[in-house]
Amino acid sequence: xxxxxxxxxxxxxKIVTVSANDTVQEAASRMQAERIGAVLVxxxxxxxxxxxxxxxxxxxxVAQRRDPGETHVEEVMTRRVACCKPSTTLDECRLxxxxxxxxxxxxxxxxxxxxxxxxxxxxxxxxxxxxTTIEYLHAYxxxxx
Length: 145
Fold this sequence. Notes:
Blueprint: H1 4-11, E1 17-19, H2 24-34, E2 38-42, E3 48-53, H3 54-62, H4 73-76, H5 90-100, E4 104-109, E5 112-118, H6 119-144
Parallel strand pairs: 1-2
Antiparallel strand pairs: 2-3, 4-5
Helix pairs in contact: 5-6
């Protein structure tokens, strides 16, 4: 069964973070530069305080007409963050993401942040696994005919 580790092996362990004191404008610029939909928010000691997502920006900044240059990330971030482990299966990730209506899961191993996966990563990994299965089946059928 494919796991989060399979995704990390394919895409790497890059984690994009911002400080709780950064402005929403700074966080949005970082997200745009990295072409990602979420950043982890870290405290001064490197502890994870929350996550800041495109949805947070839309609902808590834009819809409320807050100034992104004056609003700090800590004011509008999501504080309760669902996480997974490298050994978590993709089925479990999909279930957590669907049930909680979230698109990103930080990956934690032994209380250490080791990566981040998105629903897009999960789907891409599943497509790779399905494509491999299809290729094996085609090869089997061609060999049997």
